[in-house]
Amino acid sequence: MLAATHSGKFHADDVLAWALIKEFLDENATLIRTRDEASIQAADIVFDVGGIFDESTMRFDHHQSTYQGEFSSAGMVLHFLRNNNHISEPLFLALKNSMVDYVDDVDNGRTLPNPKAPCFAQFVDMMGSGCSSLEEFDSAFHRASQFAQNYVHSTKKNILIQEQTKDLVHEEMNTAKKENRNYLLFSHYVPWKKPYFQFEGETHPTEFVIFPNLQQKWQVVAIPSEENSFAQKKSLPQEWSGLRDEELSTVIGIPGAIFCHKNCFIAIFDRFETALSAMQKWNLLS
User: Fold this and answer.
1) What does each C-alpha distance from 247 to 57, 104, 257, 279, 280 come to in angstroms?
2) What is the pTM of this model?
3) What's the CA gap between 203 and 132, in Å, rounded?
4) Contact of 183 with 204, CB cutoff 8 Å
5) What is the mean pLDDT of each run of 10 residues along the chain (286 residues)?
6) Which of 18, 87, 158, 234 has the most neighbouring CB atoms within 10 Å?
7) Exposed e or buried b for every residue in 107-142, given b needs 16+ CB within 10 A?
8) CB burial class (10 A; 0-12, 13-18, 19+) of residue 220?
9) Within 13 Å, how many C-alpha atoms sit on residue 31's CB side?
10) How far apart are CA 237 and CA 265, in angstroms?
């Protein structure tokens, strides 16, 4: 597949559009950055240039007066991918809500980036800020688009993992409720938070999650009251706050404690039995 976009200065929308094309449409696609009309017309897919929006011919420009929609080239390409079954609905929504809508808003002047909060649009602008030739802009564009594709790929992988683990999390939530446990227990590392709140975790009676971390130590996590909240349904004891190793073990009264975060939302122990004993000793489990 031959893709075309404009040469020279670039923005977040054309960078992201190219990343989406490479990730979901054709990983072997090649790109020309040009203003030459004949070269643009000869391309299989054109974005952010050309003066045409037509999904049937894969033309994705939003600058012409005949287009009155809300998308930039990024939004156009994302919706094309969804409409033609190149991405799943959960992945479409994840990309739309986490990145593409924002890029569309910035590119169309509906949102101004916060200068004190670095974001993708600012990163892309910075990548091109030192360029002074077409060749330098081309090189910077590809560096920025690789960063964007890494983000897109990670989002895809995250959605896949959530789909694979949601049934496991839901089953454990049901089991804990039946057994009147206020904790979830997993035998291996599980990214539990997203599916937990998809299954109305805010009102679920569990307050902690216990599972081995990637270093094969056992960790206890205090469940937040809402998915993106720092507040916890039930915090670990303030007496544990910020302590490590022997000092923490002495306070808890059980050897094998490793660490407790100063904000009392996570604690690490050497073994499952140590974690369970510590929680029981401090009357944290039911």
Assistant:
1) 67, 52, 9, 17, 19
2) 0.81
3) 56
4) no
5) 97 98 98 97 98 98 96 98 96 96 97 91 94 96 97 94 92 97 95 94 97 95 94 97 98 98 97 97 94
6) 18
7) beeeeebeeeeebbbeebbebbeebeeeeebbebbb
8) buried
9) 22
10) 9
Q: What is the C-alpha to C-alpha distance for residues 188 and 168, in angstroms, rounded to an integer?
A: 11
**Burial letters for 7-23: b for 16+ Cβ neighbours within 10 Å, e otherwise?**
beebbbbbbbbbbbbbb
Q: Which two tokens stand for residue 111?
A: 């949102």
Q: DSSP code of 201?
A: G
User: 99 - beta bridge partners?
Assistant: none
C-alpha closest to that of 54 among 25, 91, 83: 83
Query: In sequence order, which residues have a C-beta less than 8 Å from that of residue 198 and are 6 or more positions away?
Result: 166
Q: Is 191 helix (H, G, I), strand (E, B) or coil?
A: coil
**128 token code pair:** 């091109």
Cα dihedral 184, 188, 189, 192 sign: negative
3-state secondary structure at position 224: strand
Strand-pair partners of 267: 220, 260
